[in-house]
């Protein structure tokens, strides 16, 4: 009978530790993959917000300027035709859907590329009429900035500002009128028409074209920073209620340009004021 040997179990050491290490490595790998995925999504969102929205809004705003100018070049319904022209049907709708062809617009002599053509009037005889809400009805030109952008009634983000337009504050004066023609525009994204508003200096010209009329303003004063609730900057006689040393004290025909500051934030407002050239 063979001798009975005691069975001694063999313990294999290290497998549990290696298993735990493998599990931890898997978790870390998964976290890394998740971080890369989230980073890629965030990057795509940034590209869309900063680049693509600019591209879309710029293209749309330029087309709107062209549409307004085409509408201004066409005779208004019911207006007498020059001698020698056949009496045919009236021209089709003027402007784009956003403008609906209604409301005042820049003179036919205005250059679509951005500068006024020779012979354009320096200013009109009277103020422009009030347009309908969200309707584009004017073109703002700032030669120093190379800016040509449509102006629409109201400052709604989706209907006006995010389309790359400049918005007219409701309740403020119209172009050429006594009071304050106050405008707002994006500084970053969505066409960013007021990106370089801080570059304006006293004496720079700002023109506003509506149908058959041009109003020219001269930049007078700049408020580098104020709060978003500083309503004094768009008052009829503009003066900051936060920094009263900035602004005006006498009635006149003013233009106010407002945008966010610092760049890529909406914490404060940058304000540029001008007066109508007589």
Report on the architecture of this protein.
- The protein is α+β, with helices and mostly antiparallel strands and 278 residues long.
- The protein has a domain of 181 residues: Sortase (Sortase, Chain: A).
- The chain contains 1 helix and 8 strands, in the order αββββββββ.
- The protein has an 8-stranded mixed β-barrel with strand order 1-2-3-4-7-8-6-5.
- Strand 7 and strand 8 form a beta hairpin.
- The protein starts with 14 loop residues before the first helix and ends with a strand.
- About 14% of the residues have low confidence.
Instruction: State the end-to-end distance.
Output: 129 Å
Structural class: alpha+beta
Shape: elongated
The CATH class of the domain at 96-276, by name, is Mainly Beta
CATH-assigned homologous superfamily of the domain at 96-276:
Sortase
- Main sheet: strand order: 1-2-3-4-7-8-6-5
Order of helices and strands: HEEEEEEEE
Average pLDDT, to the nearest integer? 80
Low-confidence stretches: 84-123
Biggest β-sheet description: 8 strands, mixed, barrel
Query: What percent of residues are in strands?
Result: 15-25%
Cα radius of gyration in angstroms: 30 Å
According to CATH, the fold-level topology of the domain at 96-276 is Sortase, Chain: A
Number of helices: 1
Q: Let me know the number of strands.
A: 8
CATH architecture of the domain at 96-276: Beta Barrel
How much helicity do the residues have?
10-25%
């Amino acid at each position: 009978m063979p001798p009975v040997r005691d069975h001694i179990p063999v313990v294999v050491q290290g497998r549990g530790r290696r298993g735990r290490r493998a599990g931890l490595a898997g978790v870390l790998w998964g976290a890394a993959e998740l971080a890369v995925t989230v980073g890629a999504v965030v990057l795509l969102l940034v590209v869309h917000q900063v680049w693509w929205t600019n591209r879309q809004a710029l293209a749309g705003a330029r087309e709107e300027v062209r549409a307004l100018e085409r509408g201004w070049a066409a005779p208004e319904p019911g207006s007498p035709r020059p001698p020698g022209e056949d009496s045919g049907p009236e021209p089709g709708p003027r402007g784009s859907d956003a403008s609906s062809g209604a409301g005042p617009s820049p003179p036919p002599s205005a250059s679509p590329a951005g500068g006024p053509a020779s012979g354009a009037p320096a200013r009109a005889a009277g103020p422009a009429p009030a347009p309908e809400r969200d309707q584009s009805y004017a073109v703002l030109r700032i030669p120093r900035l190379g800016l040509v952008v449509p102006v629409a009634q109201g400052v709604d983000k989706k209907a006006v500002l995010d389309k790359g337009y400049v918005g007219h504050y409701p309740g403020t004066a119209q172009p050429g009128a006594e009071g304050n023609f106050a405008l707002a525009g994006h500084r970053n994204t969505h066409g960013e028409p007021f990106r370089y508003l801080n570059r304006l200096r006293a004496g720079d010209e700002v023109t506003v074209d509506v149908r058959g009329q041009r109003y020219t303003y001269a930049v007078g004063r700049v408020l580098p920073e104020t709060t978003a609730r500083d309503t004094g900057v768009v008052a009829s006689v503009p003066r900051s209620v936060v920094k009263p040393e900035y602004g005006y004290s006498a009635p006149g025909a003013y233009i106010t340009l407002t945008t966010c500051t610092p760049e890529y934030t909406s914490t404060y407002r940058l304000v540029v004021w001008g007066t109508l050239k007589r």
